[in-house]
Amino acid sequence: MANEIKKYYLFIDESGDHGLVNLDPDFPVFLLCGLLMSDDNYETTRNNINVLKRKFWANKEVILHSRDIRKCNKEFQILFDNEIKQQFYLDLNAIIKDSKYRILASAINKVKYIKMYGKLSNDVYELALSFIIERAIFCLDEVTNTEKLLEIVIEKRGKKEDKKLEEHFQRLLSRGTGYVSAERLKEVRIKIVFKDKKENINGLQLTDLVAYPIARYVIEPKRANPAFDVLCNKIYHKNGLRYGLKRFP
Predict the structure, then answer these.
(1) What is the pLDDT of residues 174-229, one digit of tens each?
(2) Could you tell me the CATH number of the domain that includes residue 151?
(3) What is the pTM of this model?
(4) How many domains does the chain have?
């Protein structure tokens, strides 16, 4: 009997600036975050996010954006009302906590990175993406007796940036990464797609929401971080280690 075929998504979003020229002393980290989930689990999560959007805005067209939510900007001005804010966060945290996905994040300490490699070295976005793809493969290795397909979904950043990233991805496909061979990448028929923010992809929005608290945790691990506490169990663990949070260098 042929193996079942299961599709997985790896939604990717970032927190912080991947540039190495101007460093923000309050945010010296570039964090790339990946959410890995199966097709059927994503359908459930996407529907639950749409229910939340309809509850607070009477439609599903609102785009959840971490910074706008924190600053109560644009549609999120409704969060100036404390009762609404409390209910919104209760509902949102329930989705983050109860949805089935794994977090694979890569944090680049830009100060250390520049000291070791200089400002003109490789693109930290590409480096972080390689780390996340590696860990996605290790994570999928744990799913047995199933043929797996992996689709990486990334928000468009601009023609030039997307073309550069597509070229980097093609190099990964032909050479593999430090720990994952090209053959293993081909086994999951890995592909990359770029989506416009206007397409309102709930998977990308959820990734954006979890990326910021993880970056804040990396910068200040001792500081109170209730948003991180909600999601920390979703970070991929292997042999008792928080393997889904790669720090570099």
Answers:
(1) 999 888 999 999 999 999 999 998 999 999 999 999 999 999 999 999 999 999 99
(2) 3.30.420.10
(3) 0.94
(4) 1
